[in-house]
Amino acid sequence: MKIFEKELAFLRGLNVETDWTSKFTDFFDKKFKVGKKDTFLYLNAGSGNHALGLNKKLGRDSEMFAVSENTELQKIAQEKATAVKSDLYFSTHLPLVESEFVLADASFVEPGEIDEFIANAVKLAKKEIVFFLPTAGSFGEVFSYLWEVFLDLDLIEKGAEVEKLILDLPAVSDLEDSLSRLGFKKTQTTTKNEFVEFESGKEFRESPLIKYFLIPVWLKFLNQKEKEQVITKLAQKIDDESGEVNFRVSIKATLLSGIKK
Q: Does the pTM exceed 0.85?
């Protein structure tokens, strides 16, 4: 069943930013004490929760620009800003000028597009930039089960695609190198092990995070019939292997930061 952008935006704000995005934003809040910044740009601000919190911390002497990924997310974020009487304006367009500090959510940027996303984001950073995203080693439990599912369903010829899912996740050292090549010094990556837990294979399969945001990327090389077969079998395998223990999906939550030379 097709799901529309408005519904995805609602699910993102209601469930996904709590179950997923907060694992990165909480990590950022602990590692970076945001003081006064003349200008602060938040790229991929989603439905606005974290951006609104940071804007409040920055205070009146700072100016924040917040860019949501699409119009539906922007509408939700702006409604939240209005509800809390915040002066923060959410846009879907990039600002025309650089900001002193840039924070970029790359947690849903496809691995193959990470380099381009970083290159575009740094053009808007006058001094300092921070990205957050999952890196190599994430989702290992899921990818391991996918290998077995493809064998069970006689889709072994698709096995190379699972290997590609594993290898495409960026390594922290490669991220630092990319930022250095783009003119940043004091590049640093900090990684924290996080988990998303599911009580059953059904809960995993029906989770908005998995169903609408991760699985469509992971299994985009399959046709619709194959996707349905793989998802059903994957949920069964989770139940068979996990028993009464919750199934934990591991995430290497990573902060990539740099200061402009």
A: yes
DSSP letters spanning 187-243: EEEEEEEEEEEESSHHHHHH-HIIIIIIHHHHTTTS-HHHHHHHHHHHHHHHHHHHT
253 dihedral zone (left: phi>0; alpha: psi -120 to 50; beta): beta
- The one-letter code for the residue type at 166 is I
Q: What phi and psi, each to the nearest 5 degrees, are found at residue 68?
A: -90, 160
22-72 pLDDT tens trace:
999 999 999 998 877 889 999 999 999 999 999 998 877 889 999 999 999
Q: Please write the tens of the pLDDT for every residue from 182-203.
A: 999 889 999 999 999 999 999 9
**Which H or E run contains 13?**
none
Question: Which region holds residue 136: left if phi is over 0, alpha if psi is between -120 and 50, else beta?
Answer: beta
| 114, 51, 90, 4 alpha-carbon torsion, rounded to 10° | 60
